[in-house]
């Protein structure tokens, strides 16, 4: 492709050099540049990509897209000045791959919790309905059954466009993706034509990055502000900020609620550890999911499928056949009747919801033992709040490590201990080693008791000091339950 053709898709402030030259590919990392690449210099969180223009040229970049053209230029190189490199990267990548998102229906899910659940369930549902489908999620990137472990919940713009090209080539008519707040803020989703967006909820997380809750809301809302009039915007009317999210969107507004007035409604009729009976939009269905929050997720899935013009009857039948998502309220029972629940709850609100779901189902004489930690190098202010939620709704809490990353694990636990209220002191233990913590929970538990192992869900590693070691909550609990895989 010629640079001239690519550049037509963006607003340029200034061009120095010829546009009549080859663009062999787009790169934003100088280390990956090849001959005739277009290098897009981005201002990052840690370093400024403009510092890598010379190394990029050294590796063969013929065209430099940047927010500031360097005063010392290399002859024979084309410089294109743009206002915002982040936004331009996605548009160039989309044009380079010939606009894959316009060749299928792409639906993005955003919110603090529930994105993976909803995107994965939509993927599974549409596969069952007979379509070729793509998925971009925290767990994996999928094109039908081909699967790649995910590096990010929402990867960089270049990777997204490459994935979408693969989806189009495989005949996908739909792509369901998670849209993280980081991705919206860094414009990783620029260049994607969305058919629809879904908002789940917004509660405390990621304040290390967004600084304030208002900043976090603003980032999420920008996704809906950017939807086109022919798209749909589905929001959770049960969330305080659900309607705010859609205030300025030009997309068709759709709301859903568990129990209240909304375009799509559902009611929980019965709850058990192996599933719920729901009234979904006037129809009774049995599902294998647990908890009001999952009723909300399933309703969002239903509302999306109907907005994508699928048949109500088929959708309801397939929803009732759907299996839980990996690491989301996964239950394991020991032969002597202890119940372990492995769940990805890593925010105060997620813990609150999962524990509430447990308390609605358990009988009075069963104890709830919660094993929980918090990730290192991430929002520290959520740590004591997570402890508060855990102690409020559990009979015993074992504070432990999640992914300490580069932080000292005992410092993270200290931050969590700050959330122990005086009356709950006796129910809390701190055991830094996660395996030991799970072992202790299994030892303390009596037949019938419930052990919630929260925070890591599907993750099969524990990152300590920047190194990922194999660790799988499900595997560990099975080992202590004496269950062979
Ligand atoms: C904080 C954050 O989001 N950082 C992301 C960001 O990196 P950065 O801004 O630090 O990049 P940088 O190192 O400053 O580099 C700036 C620029 O210089 C370029 N560079 C750099 C070095 C070099 O030698 N040559 C070169 O060209 C880089 O390619 C980049 O374009 O851009 C990178 C490329 O897209 C991302 O990989 C990186 O994600 C990091 C690894 C990360 O951990 N992100 C997490 C927080 C994240 O995004 N999480 C959300 C999930 C949240 C949720 O689930 O709710 C996600 O979507 O996964
Ligand atoms: N709708 C919901 N409301 C509140 N909590 C939820 C909801 N759905 C799931 N959860 C809780 O949040 C956890 C994470 O769910 P999920 O992985 O679907 O969220 P996510 O938004 O993809 O998270 P991440 O930001 O890490 O990608 C679940 O294990 C459960 O504890
Ligand atoms: N997407 C979430 C993942 C958190 C998972 C938890 N296990 C941790 O490591 O903190 C985040 O980036 O905050
Ligand atoms: Mg996710």
What does this structure look like?
Strand 12 (about 230-235), helix 9 and strand 13 (about 250-260) form a beta-alpha-beta unit. The strands form four sheets. Strands 9-8-7-10-6-11-12-13-14-15-16 form an eleven-stranded mixed β-sheet, sandwiched between helices. With about 475 residues, it is of the alpha/beta class. The longest helix has 16 residues, at about 290-305. The chain has three domains: about 5-95, Udp-n-acetylmuramoylalanyl-d-glutamate--2,6- Diaminopimelate Ligase, Chain: A, domain 1, CATH 3.40.1390; about 100-320, 3-Layer(aba) Sandwich (UDP-N-acetylmuramoyl-L-alanine:D-glutamate ligase); about 330-480, Mur ligase, C-terminal domain (Protein-Tyrosine Phosphatase, Chain A, Alpha-Beta Complex), CATH 3.90.190. The chain is built from 16 helices and 24 strands. The radius of gyration is 24 Å and the shape is globular. The protein starts with a helix and ends with a helix. Keywords: ATP-binding, Cell cycle, Cell division, Cell shape, Cell wall biogenesis/degradation, Cytoplasm, Ligase, Magnesium, Nucleotide-binding, Peptidoglycan synthesis.
């Amino acid at each position: 492709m010629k640079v001239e053709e690519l550049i037509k898709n963006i607003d340029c402030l200034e061009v120095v050099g010829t546009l009549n030259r080859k663009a062999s590919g787009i790169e934003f990392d100088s280390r990956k540049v090849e001959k005739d690449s277009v290098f897009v210099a981005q201002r990052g969180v840690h370093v400024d990509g403009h510092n890598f223009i010379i190394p990029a040229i050294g590796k063969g970049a013929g065209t430099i897209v940047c927010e500031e053209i360097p005063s010392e230029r290399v002859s024979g190189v084309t410089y294109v000045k743009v206002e915002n490199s982040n936004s331009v990267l996605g548009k160039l990548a989309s044009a380079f791959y010939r606009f894959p998102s316009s060749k299928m229906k792409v639906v993005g899910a955003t919110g603090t919790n529930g994105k993976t659940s909803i995107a994965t369930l939509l993927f599974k549902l549409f596969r069952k309905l007979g379509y070729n489908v793509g998925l971009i999620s925290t767990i994996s990137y999928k094109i039908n059954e081909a699967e790649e472990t995910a590096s990010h919940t929402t990867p960089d713009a270049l990777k997204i466009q490459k994935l979408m090209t693969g989806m189009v080539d495989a005949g996908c008519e739909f792509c369901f993706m998670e849209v993280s707040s980081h991705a919206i803020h860094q414009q990783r989703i620029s260049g994607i034509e969305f058919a629809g967006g879904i908002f789940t909820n917004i509660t405390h997380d990621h304040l290390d990055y967004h600084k304030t809750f208002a900043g976090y809301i603003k980032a999420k809302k920008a996704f809906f502000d950017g939807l086109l009039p022919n798209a749909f915007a589905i929001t959770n009317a049960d969330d305080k900020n659900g309607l705010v999210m859609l205030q300025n969107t030009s997309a068709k507004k759709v709301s859903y609620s568990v129990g209240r007035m909304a375009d799509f409604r559902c009611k929980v009729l019965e709850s058990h550890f192996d599933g719920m009976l729901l009234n979904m939009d006037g129809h009774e269905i049995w599902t294998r999911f647990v908890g009001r929050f999952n009723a909300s997720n399933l309703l969002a899935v239903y509302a999306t499928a109907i907005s994508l013009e699928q048949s109500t009857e088929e959708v309801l039948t397939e929803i009732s056949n759907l299996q839980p998502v990996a690491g989301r309220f996964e239950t394991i029972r020991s032969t002597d009747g202890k119940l372990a629940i492995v769940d990805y709850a890593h925010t105060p609100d997620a813990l609150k919801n999962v524990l509430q779901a447990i308390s609605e189902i358990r009988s009075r004489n069963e104890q709830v033992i919660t094993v929980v930690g918090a990730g290192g190098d991430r929002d520290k202010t959520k740590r004591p709040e997570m402890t508060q939620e855990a102690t409020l709704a559990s009979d015993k809490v074992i504070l432990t490590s999640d992914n300490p990353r580069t932080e000292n694990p005992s410092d993270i636990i200290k931050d969590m201990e700050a959330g122990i209220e005086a009356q709950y002191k006796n129910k809390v233990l701190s055991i830094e080693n996660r395996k030991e913590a799970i072992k202790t929970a299994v030892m303390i538990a009596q037949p019938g008791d419930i052990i919630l192992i929260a925070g890591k869900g599907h993750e099969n590693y524990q990152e300590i000091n920047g190194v990922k070691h194999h660790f799988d909550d499900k595997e560990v609990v099975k080992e202590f339950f004496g269950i062979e895989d």
